[in-house]
From TrEMBL:
Listed Pfam families: DUF4139 (PF13598), DUF4140 (PF13600)
Keyword Coiled coil found: yes
Residue ranges the record marks as coiled coil: 104-176
InterPro entries on file: CHP02231, DUF4139, DUF4140
Organism phylogeny: Eukaryota, Fungi, Dikarya, Basidiomycota, Agaricomycotina
Keywords: Coiled coil
Annotated organism of origin: Ephemerocybe angulata
Protein name, as recorded: Protein F37C4.5
Length: 328
């Protein structure tokens, strides 16, 4: 028996991976703040390649409700599916060693040498400029003046380059010193713990017809956010038109781990629909009540009772197997 040839499989295309950090790669376009919750809307702009794209959004708050996540794409792209999870834990900071302390001491020495060199270069450059400003035509002839200016210009450029190089080395040494201090003081762990509120991630699979930039709007609800209405009343004794002035304010508190500075915000007095569980409906058991058996009888006070079969009287309604009928 001949085997059937396997059907040809469609060619597989590489998946383009796009990683975004919510705090740095997006802007908060709106915050709807309720009494105990908030709805945050973020806008991302990034480029996609034609075909399959896997967009990973990092840095989402731990307190956001998974059921509230909504993703909307604006552009020539189609969103296939969205999944939510937690970021993998960061690598633990290396333990402090005597070598770390020795390296930190060396970096301190390098910084001091660079500071002294930078001060020396700046004083030399200032002396050259002061010397150039002190020259006058009465003191030197024109040819000598030109040669002097060219020499000062060459020397000034040399020391300007030295100053720029020294500043760059100082920045590098400063970065290395911060890293060594983090190792010695355990700041690497503290830094990881400071981000524990922004560990959630969302994965969005997007198919783009053509390569280009798209805009993605991500909306989600978070806990640990609230606002309280405050009222400030001022009475003016010298004004008859408006003796009392009321100012409406709001005390806003949030511990989501996000930065809401300068974000447009709307204070809501209604109760949000997200984060509230549906009521549990208990079953109602229904049953059919059995009908009672009806019995008909006829009584004659002037005659003795007699019993006959119910079928003898056609006018009798048979509501049971046996019906008691009394006839004269």
């Amino acid at each position: 028996m001949a085997e059937k040839d396997a059907e040809p499989q469609p060619p597989s295309y590489p998946v383009n991976l796009v990683k975004l950090n919510a705090p740095t790669d997006s802007t908060i376009s709106n915050v709807n703040l309720y009494s105990r919750r908030a709805e945050v809307t973020r806008t991302f702009k990034f480029k996609l390649t034609s075909g399959q794209n896997k967009v990973i959004i990092l840095g989402l708050p731990d307190s956001f409700n998974d059921d509230t996540l909504r993703v909307e794409g604006r552009g020539d792209a189609t969103i296939h599916d969205v999944s939510i999870g937690f970021e993998p834990p960061p690598a633990s900071a290396p333990p402090a060693t005597p070598q770390s302390q020795q390296k930190l001491n060396e970096l301190y020495s390098q910084r001091d040498q660079l500071d002294r060199a930078l001060d020396r270069y700046e004083r030399t450059l200032k002396g050259l400029n002061d010397y150039l400003r002190s020259l006058t035509i009465q003191h030197v002839d024109a040819e000598t003046l030109v040669q002097t200016i060219e020499s000062v210009d060459t020397a000034s450029k040399k020391y300007e380059d030295k100053i720029a190089e020294a500043k760059q080395d100082l920045r590098r040494v400063g970065d290395e010193m911060r890293e060594e201090k983090m190792v010695l003081n355990g700041a690497g762990k503290d830094k990881a713990e400071s981000r524990h509120q922004l560990r959630k991630m969302a994965t969005v699979n997007v198919f783009a017809e053509v390569e280009g930039e798209i805009e993605m709007v991500v909306t989600y609800g978070v806990e640990n956010a609230s606002w309280t209405a405050l009222y400030e009343v001022r009475a003016k004794t010298d004004s008859k038109e408006a003796p009392v002035e009321i100012s409406y304010k709001a005390a806003i508190a949030q511990s989501t781990g996000e930065e809401w500075a300068n974000a447009p915000m709307t204070l809501q007095t209604a109760t949000p629909t997200f984060g509230i569980g549906l009521p549990k409906l208990e079953p109602w058991n229904l049953s059919i009540k059995p009908q009672p058996v009806s019995t008909y009888s006829t009584y004659d006070t002037h005659a003795d009772a007699a019993y006959y079969d119910a079928n003898a009287n056609a006018a009798t309604h048979n509501y049971s197997n046996e019906v008691e009928v009394i006839l004269e």
